[in-house]
Amino acid sequence: MGKITEALRKAADDRLERIDKINRIRERQELVIQKIGDSKVDPRIVTYFDPKALISEQYKILRTNVLSANAKRPLKTLVITSSLHSEGKTITALNLAMAIAQSTQKPKVLLIDADMRRGRVARYLGVEQKTGLTEILTEKADPSQTLFHIDIENLTFLSSGAVAENPAELLASDGMQRLLADMKTQFDHVIIDTPPIISVTDSGIIGALADGVLLVIQAGRTQRGIVQRATELLEQAHCKTIGHVLTNIEYHLPEYIYRYL
After folding, report:
1. Is 40 exposed, middle or buried (0-12, 13-18, 19+ CB in 10 A)?
2. Relative orientation angle of helices 89-101 and 54-67, to the nearest 10 degrees
3. How many CB atoms neighbour CB 188 within 10 A?
4. Tens digits of residue pLDDT in 118-175
5. pLDDT for the residue numbered 250
6. How many domains does the chain have?
């Protein structure tokens, strides 16, 4: 009994020490990536503000894992989705796209916001790009008129455009297939941010057209049964899930504790 009590006391002391360390780090503001100048880019896009930060290195590891997922058939189109809203899929898509564009090979990367219900990529980039995917698929605009070049070399952005009345039907159209086929000839990698798979069918539709799908999971929030259901829906849509990304975790290093957003 004494050993159990001692173990519990030690665990409590360790926890208090970790909490104290977190507070000390927060006081030094080392957990926050500061914005540069008057940039309107969201500070959670760490690969934009500080490509050499430890958090950015995690996205580089993700980049390596994604690009080496299938050596025989290099991945060109990747869909990023989640089970539920607010799990960090859009932040993941932005940071991954920038990490790929920043690699030594300098590949041409296109980031598509395919959430035509509540697209947020433009907001995170701090730009107003009202013409995008919806206008292309409804034949109101040409892709050449909608591609937006941000100040990251080799990275191009296509916004979601106006809120669509029938997004699933538009994404399942021949126009979407032609657009992806055309973009694959112009870019080395196409990263596509999509709505959560459990909420709507959109990501399953696009995922079936892509080379792979990444499922983003928020630690401490998304239940295992929900993740299993999301995986089943992707399988039913004939998507190839190449991996999972766990967000909102605390990673402990000597002298540092970083929260991944």
Report:
1. exposed
2. 80
3. 16
4. 999 999 999 888 899 999 999 999 998 899 888 888 999 999 999 999 999 999 999 9
5. 66
6. 2
Q: Same structural domain for residues 218 and 241? A: yes
Check whether residue 165 and residue 244 sit in a common domain.
yes
Counts of helices then strands in the chain (DSSP H, E): 11, 9
Q: What pLDDT is stored for residue 124 in this prediction? A: 94
**Domain containing 12: what range?**
1-30
pLDDT of residue 192: 98
Whether residue 50 is found in the same domain as residue 104: yes
Distance of CA 174 to the CA centre of its chain: 26
Q: State the residue for tokens 């937006």.
A: 148
Looking up residue 178, the CATH number of its domain turns out to be 3.40.50.300
233 and 173 assigned to the same domain: yes
Contact 90, 109 (CB under 8 A): no
Q: Is the pLDDT of residue 259 over 80?
A: no
